[in-house]
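Narrative progress, year one. The postdoctoral researcher (J.K.) led the effort to move from monomer predictions toward full complexes, under supervision of the PI. The following entry was the first complex the group processed end to end, covering 613 residues in total.
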Amino acid sequence: MNVLKAASGRRSMASPGCVLRLALLLATGHWPPATLLAQQPAPQARPPGAPAPTQVGRTGKATAPVDLTGYWVSVISEDWRWRMVTPLKGDFAGVPVNGDARRVGERWNPAQDEAAGAQCKSYGAPAIMRVPGRVHITWQDDNTLKIETDSGMQTRLLDFQGAAKEVDTIASWQGFSSANWERPPNGVEVPDNFPIFSTRTGTQGRSLEVVTTHLRPGYLRKNGVPYSAQTVLDEYFDYHKESNGDEWFTVTTIVKDPVYLTGPYITSTDFKKERDGSKWDPTPCTAR
Amino acid sequence: MGPHTVHRPLEQRWSRRQPATEASASALVAMFLCAAFATPASAQIDFTGEWAPAYHEDAPERLPGPELGDYMGIPLSAAARLRADSYDADRISVVNEYQCRPHSSDYGMRGLGNLRVWREINPKNQEVIALHTYMPAWGSERTIWMDNRPHPPEYAEYTFQGFSTGVWEGNMLTITTTHLKANYYRRNGVASSDKRTVTEHWARHGDFLTVIVVESDPVMLTEPWVRSENWYLDPGQKLTAFQCEYQPEVPAPVGTVPHHLPGTNPFLTEVADWYGLPREATRGGAETMYPEFRKKMTKPVMPPPDHCERFCVCTTLIDCQLHGR
């Protein structure tokens, strides 16, 4: 026992009960369990950026480690002058754009977008969480989390079975979103090889991981900073509760666009939970 | 081999060990397994390494520095606004005491924040005692205690890095910092008080790090101020040492503190006029941080320029300087 104490510390010390239980299991042939001895299948290849699918037979709703449902307001404590008002033409500050993006941005013409019925170009999935407004999150069904926005009146559907689907959908402002409750890096299983004296770092994840593809080209900002149809959007939703009781989620948004960006465009946006939908204010998209 | 030896195939001999041997082996294996699978006190995501900041939010404010009078997005109290209005940018050139004043740990995370994180391990039990961070700006090194120690009493020393403790909430590290010296929220005179408590939530997603920062300051803020910033893993990053020397830059009589008396600062409307913004929005305040403020705010006093003129391309310090004007 002293050896164990010295080796692994007070909190990880093996208790007599633990030793007895395991000895009994070994003697009766019940230990190690088959799941531990069985060769762990190698993770199946997934499309680039696609999250691991939710455990078979368990729904996204049933495995939710946190509750993201409800009404939430985006609090504009960052990027105020690029979000609360339409930025000036040619303002690309903070966005890692390339020369092509700047050329496109300099040609921004909101009247043309209005005439084309494309007022929602700055309300697509890569931009919508950054738009000031409120979101209403509900479970549409056991494997679909729905995010509605009052600004631009958009609807996002996050599909917890999306990773297993053959996606054959028309590109849209909100695209196709595959969701998963993020697991710790390399999973929660014990390390490979010889697991004695080493445990897996990482605890059960609480983050919602979303990958969105099939996007209709649009704007990262209202002043025409473009993203292309090749954009892949990675998002992580992290829930946190503060000492004053306020509930928040922060969504980290990583936009990858090989056409218009020189590297990933990373922002994180903070939403505070509201008691009800009394401040819900549906407003159509505007191009200006 | 004796007469009573039972001849069995080799594989059967390997598969049917003697009971005594099996029992002792079982106990030994059980002890190993208990040691191996017991949960450590602080299971954790690994935040150690070299992190480079993504200046994709508020880049002009964080890199070259904020415009005078830009209080946008801050739930400022009236007292904090009055104090910020008195600020004169010559202050850091004239007042030696301000020249090498370090960033506090909360401002440092928002400011020029290349970051190194490493762990301090207790060699006797392999538990994490603390995380340490280093940021080159002012050579700021910070300790985040992970060993459940309490915060010191209020009369204990206040420092620029403060006293930080961390706890795990799932895959998120939550850090509480107290005992911070008064400093600034923005480098244009928006001050922070030594009464503030800073809560951080660190979340790692692949090679990205998001840190959510909650400032609670009963003096300077009217409600908790929540922001979040992002880093990406950059193992090749080599951080430099920082040096700062006091050097009078602007001749002025001893004891001079450049300032503006209330109502006399002529620079406070520049930011609104340069960017075509409603002037009341640039004054900050909690009300301005919520979407419905857009319906209340007035039109800009000065018509917005037709095209961006300042810091139009700005994601790195070099970018920002090249495209500053």
